[in-house]
Amino acid sequence: MMVINRYLDPATIQRLNHLHLSARRVVEGATTGSHRSALKGSSVEFRQHRFYVRGDELRRLDWRVLGRTDRPYVKEYDEETNLRCTLVLDASGSMAYGQLPDNKFDYASRMVAALSYLMLAQTESVGLATTTEKITQYLAPQDGSPQLSRIVSALQRTVPNGPANLSASLHELAERLGRRSLVILISDFFTPLDPLKTALAHLAHHRHEIIALRILHHDERHFPFSYWTRFRGLESEPSRLCEPAMVRQIYLQNFHHHQTQLSQLFAGLHIESQNFLTRSDLIESLTHFLHRRMG
User: Fold this and answer.
1) What does the buried/exposed string (b/e) look like for 187-220 if buried means 16 or more CB atoms within 10 Å of the residue's CB?
2) Other CB atoms closer than 10 Å to residue 238's CB: what's the count?
3) Which of 23, 201, 206, 239 could covalently link to 118 via disulfide, CB atoms 3.0 to 4.6 Å apart?
4) What is the structure's pLDDT at 20?
């Protein structure tokens, strides 16, 4: 399909096929192998009812409860399973930075497609949440090859724009998931850290394992501007004309301070994280990340 080729061309798929064994280990310590995990399904061991949220399969509705209470609930079961993963993609305005092929959102979208391909090929269940000030699209985790087309279609519909509120989106996601999962966050994490810490702690409290993958552009790391430049805010901030030599030092100080605090936040909550630069080869960077997980 052409829509998939935009994110997963044949050469990329061939390279990803060599990572399948490694992909199984990305969930080490999460809900894999002999671990018990909760999964929507038909198992003999009923676990609980949970209020229906958009994206749940209608066939999981408990029609008897609906008839008695006029409120939609779905059944959950305990089942031996592999992974349940939700990929969270930041679609706020700051992710629009950069021209192709170094555009941050394009890089992040290809990462979502690659991770989805890897995990679905292992018969795992994968879902997607795109976020700005709230969750804008939500696909509940499912397995099977049709899910890849759904994820790619959601990526195709998404245009990064507007302010971010990643923290609010993660609180919303914590309430939606309802069961232990792996949550992979893909964002530039240019967000206030105190609310982010609270939101990540909310996910951790529900026993979700969290991985944070930070997408950065070369300009954000090095501020290479030399001449008077008009900087336009991508999340509704006003534009400003600046002489780069006058602001470079304070910008880099603030950037590295934020990076240090972000790393400390992740370490304090036992969240594995890794930075990805849009200039780097995506598959090589993912290979390095997966092999580090295996190590």
Assistant:
1) bbbbbeeeebbebbebbbeeebbbbbbbbbbeeb
2) 7
3) 23
4) 59
Q: 47-61, 177-191, 267-281 — which is least confidently predicted?
A: 47-61
Among the listed residues 177, 186, 233, the one whose alpha carbon sits nearest the alpha carbon of residue 204: 177
Structure tokens at 71: 């409120």
Query: Of 226, 237, 219, 228, nearest to 277 (Cα)?
Result: 219
Count of all residues that appear for the chain in the document? 295
191 to 118, 203, 270, 272: CA distances (angstroms): 29, 17, 19, 18
Q: In which element (H, E) is residue 274 found?
A: strand 272-277
CA angle 130–131–134, rounded 5-degree value: 130
Model confidence, pTM: 0.80
d(CA 87, CA 27): 13
Q: Which two tokens stand for residue 133?
A: 């000030």
pLDDT digits (tens, 9 = 90+) for 258-293: 999 999 999 999 999 999 999 999 999 998 888 787
